[in-house]
Design a protein that fits this description.
heterodimer; A: alpha/beta; Rossmann fold; 8-stranded mixed beta sheet; globular; B: alpha/beta; 3 domains; two-stranded antiparallel sheet; about 40% helix; about 15% strand; EC 2.1.1.348 (chain B); S-adenosyl-L-methionine (chain B); methyltransferase (chain B)
Chain lengths: ~325, ~525
């Protein structure tokens, strides 16, 4: 009985509220409001990047781009090799790669080095690696690391020998959404730092010649952006999927290698990915052999074929510029 | 025959009380304690008690199994009331307990393993369910225990956990600095943006727009919406909404305009544009907040502040119109922080003259700071050049800030071929430190700025707040290559695009007039 009464009272209360609301002015404000997220962070602790409104779907509001992304994803999946893993101790990475190059005549078009961990051994790896023989021309190199690591590597990559072979073309950034994220580079923070570090950096380098206007069979420019933010469906691991996707969307090549020159441990596992050979000491799957890989590549072809729909959708250099 | 493990646990939990006054280790008193404990906590409804003899033999057993863990004194023969525990070795007892505990886990795991196997073979599902229900609580408890324990069991893991804890502990200085910053930074009004995508289309029906402006809202319609979508009125009252500004030429299937509110062809563009709506009441509230927050609070933590921080007013804005390349930096004095946004000589048609990279590198930056921070905006190719230059000028690159550029709708910029190979959604700001400035308040902000784009090459204002929190409000701050919109209190702005000059510091004023006199003198000769 009392429950019924309560309900009636509640309803009456709501009616009262709605009557009160009638008098609330809905007149629109006459000035544009912009939030200062850095200021808000100081007072509430909420991080600026968490207010970005297209994290889950970066191309929200752009149906053409949405279609392009899904078409490209489908095509990449269709022409993927099966996932290959190669478990190698850190000091065996370079000899193994040398074997692949010399004995098996393997080359790759897309090579990614490093992951979102300390990458302790990236420097010796980069100095010892027969990188110009490992990567074909034209080829693409992505080097991931903490901002600190990338800064340290800058001397190496800007020395003459390197700079001639690999042109630094873009600088990518990956941002975790908060401090509890598995991708938060917490321990990277040093006492010298002026700001709390919340980014991972990547150098995208190009070797050989590609022209964005004429080499549409090799590269698709301006599809992705140089920024990736952790999404809800990011799985815990050493490498979020977005890192692979940028490379897959940019280059049409199917021969892709990822070297993880660090122990990543069981808490940040390295997940296998179709279309990639992933190599490192903590890679769980060890199924790589050159013969199988070559068979897979000859099955899928070394580059994705041209797709008329993708061609019509992807951003291209303006034709008028050529005159 | 097994040990009385309950007694071991009991002794471990209560050894302090047992040895302290008034019990003083008296065996009989301890027996009373123990039996009360058993009655109260364990077998409340069970009559089964423990006799004193059983208690004594259990104790004996424990001391036999684990020699030295308890030492029973017997000063007068015969009288059981005079038996005393003289000493309890807690550590050995703990070891004993741990051995038992680990063994119990192993046993129960093996036990459950074999049981479920049996059940699997029998395919006796109901029974297995019945079984699991009575096994699970204790098993779950133990498994949880294993997980918790595993961290402390191996010495390596223990060490790692301690290291991690130490490394991730926030410094007291940065905690205090954060508190100070929170007290001293004025609160900017914050209005959340509605994240319910349905509201956009619903709201579009309620809004009346004239001349690309929202003029009113149909309250009746909104009320009707409220009945179908409860909460929408509340949301409209408290959030920013972006309403599509639909025109006869708008083609919804095309999606959003890349330029949105900065589109120059608003009257012909077929893409969707948006108008911002939030009620006037929020605007009034926001202005009131702004007024209130201007009264700054003081903080007891004063690291990095000047000694008269409370009474000293902040320097008014100062600026000099000049060609930075030919300006004598000696005039300006020393600064705690310098921002430079040079127009790097990249191949783009920018609405202002670019200077050659060489000219920039030759600027006498060493004159501006003895110790302090230099913030250098860089684009693409200039990142490397910028890092090198900073080092040449005597700075160490300690941070690389990213400005994540957003559009009217608070989304990152993803269209428009903004970069050569990939689209650019961010810009980089290099941060160099010269000397060992101990007066900085580090790690208050993060190395990201999320802010909307404005006029070409105009940088986000959030940076000023971040720098002021680092070096303090009263520190001298300089902006090179600034424009009129960069002029602000506490900052000295120089560049060839500011209007006129305004100098308040007497010293600078004197040196500047000497400099201009000399210039004019050389012209007349």
């Amino acid at each position: 009985m009392s429950a019924v009464l309560e309900e009636i009272y509640q309803k009456k209360g709501e009616e009262h509220k709605s009557v009160a609301k009638k008098h609330v002015s809905f007149r629109p404000a006459n000035e544009f409001h912009t939030n200062d997220y850095s200021n808000n962070h100081i007072h509430t602790g909420s991080l600026p990047q968490s207010h970005i409104r297209n994290i889950e779907n970066t191309v929200d509001g752009y149906p053409k781009l949405q279609k392009l992304f899904s078409m490209k994803e489908k095509q990449v999946m269709q022409y993927n090799t099966k996932p290959f893993g190669c478990t190698v101790e850190l000091d065996e990475i370079v000899p193994t790669l040398n074997d692949w190059i010399q004995k098996d005549n393997l080359t790759f078009d897309v090579v990614m080095i490093g992951c979102l961990t300390d990458n302790q051994f990236i420097y010796p790896l980069l100095t010892q690696l027969p990188i110009n023989r490992l990567i074909s021309k034209p080829g693409f190199l992505f080097v991931w690391g903490s901002a600190q690591k990338i800064n340290e590597l800058s001397r190496l990559l800007s020395n003459e020998v390197w700079a001639k072979k690999f042109r630094r073309s873009e600088e990518l950034v990956f941002v975790p959404v908060n401090k509890n994220s598995p991708f938060y580079p917490g321990l990277e923070a040093d006492d010298e730092s002026l700001f709390n570090k919340m980014q991972w950096h990547c150098w995208m380098c190009i070797t050989g010649t590609v022209r964005r206007a004429t080499d549409g069979h090799l590269i698709h420019c301006n599809v992705d952006t140089d920024l990736a933010i952790e999404t809800n469906n990011c799985k815990v691991g050493a490498i979020p999927n977005q890192l692979y996707k940028v490379a897959e969307n940019f280059s049409t090549a199917t021969r892709r290698l990822h070297i993880v020159p660090a122990r990543t441990g069981s808490e940040t596992p390295i997940r296998m990915r179709p279309g990639w050979v992933i190599m490192g000491p903590d890679v769980l799957l060890n199924n790589f052999n050159s013969k199988d890989y070559k068979n897979e590549i000859s099955r899928v072809g070394s580059n994705l074929p041209k797709d008329p729909v993708i061609e019509s959708l992807r951003p291209k250099s303006p034709v008028s510029n050529k005159n | 025959m097994s040990l009385n493990w309950g007694l071991v646990d009991f002794m471990l939990d209560n050894h302090m009380t047992m040895m302290a006054h008034p019990v003083n280790g008296s065996l009989h008193d301890i027996y009373v304690m123990y039996s009360m404990f058993m009655q109260n906590f364990l077998w409340k409804n069970n009559e089964c008690g423990v006799t004193f003899a059983k208690f004594c033999s259990d104790l004996d057993q424990i001391s036999q199994v684990c020699s030295g863990c308890i030492n029973i004194e017997d000063d007068s023969e015969g009288s059981i009331f005079n038996k005393k525990i003289a000493y309890i070795n807690r550590d050995t007892l703990k070891l004993l307990q741990k051995v038992h505990y680990d063994k119990a886990i192993k046993l129960s795991l093996a036990h459950v393993g074999s049981k479920t196997k049996e059940n699997y073979v029998k395919q006796d599902i109901p029974q297995s369910q019945g079984d699991s229900s009575d096994i699970h609580p204790s098993l779950l408890h133990r498994l949880m225990g294993v997980l918790e324990k595993s961290e402390t069991i191996t010495p390596n893991a223990k060490c790692l956990a301690r290291l991690n804890q130490t490394l991730s502990t926030e410094l007291g200085s940065s905690k205090l600095a954060k508190e100070q910053a929170e007290l001293k930074t004025e609160v900017m009004p914050f209005i959340p943006i509605c994240s319910d995508s349905r509201h956009v289309s619903l709201f579009a029906m309620v809004i009346n727009t004239v001349n690309n402006k929202i003029v009113s809202l149909q309250t009746e319609k909104l009320k009707r919406l409220e009945s179908e979508h409860p909460g929408i009125t509340e949301c409209v009252n408290s959030h920013i909404h972006f309403v599509p500004n639909l025109k006869p030429q708008t083609d919804l299937s095309l999606g959003d305009c890349s330029y949105l509110d900065t589109c120059h062809k608003l009257s012909t563009c077929r893409y969707v544009h948006y108008l911002q709506y939030y009620p006037e009441s929020l605007q009034r509230q926001k202005n009131a907040e702004l007024k209130k927050s201007i009264e700054q609070q003081t903080s007891f933590y004063t690291h990095g502040e000047c000694c008269s921080a409370l009474s000293k007013s902040i320097l008014p804005p100062q600026w000099i119109k000049c060609d930075v390349r030919k300006f004598d930096f000696n005039i300006l004095g020393k600064f705690s922080a310098v921002i430079a946004d040079p127009a790097w000589n990249i191949h783009m048609n920018l609405p202002y003259g670019t200077c050659h990279d060489n000219e920039l590198l030759q600027l006498p930056f060493e004159l501006l700071q003895d110790e302090g921070l230099l913030f250098l905006w860089v684009t693409g190719r200039a990142v490397e050049l910028g890092k090198e230059s900073l080092q040449n000028w005597g700075y160490e690159v300690v941070n690389e800030l990213s400005w994540i550029k957003t559009n009217q709708l608070g989304r990152t910029i993803v269209t428009g071929r903004t970069g050569h190979w990939l689209n650019h959604s961010k810009e980089h700001l290099l941060v160099g430190v010269k000397g060992k400035p101990e007066w900085l308040n580090r790690k208050i902000d993060i190395d990201l700025i999320v802010s909307a784009t404005r006029e070409t090459s105009r940088k986000p204002d959030e940076l000023y707040g971040m720098i002021e929190r680092l070096v303090g409000m009263h520190a001298r701050k300089l902006e090179l290559f600034g424009r009129d919109h960069n002029i602000r209190p506490g900052w000295f702005t120089i560049g060839n695009q500011v209007t006129g000059s305004s100098i308040n510091e007497v010293d600078v004023k004197r040196k500047y007039s000497m400099f201009t006199e000399k210039l004019e003198g050389s012209k007349t000769h």
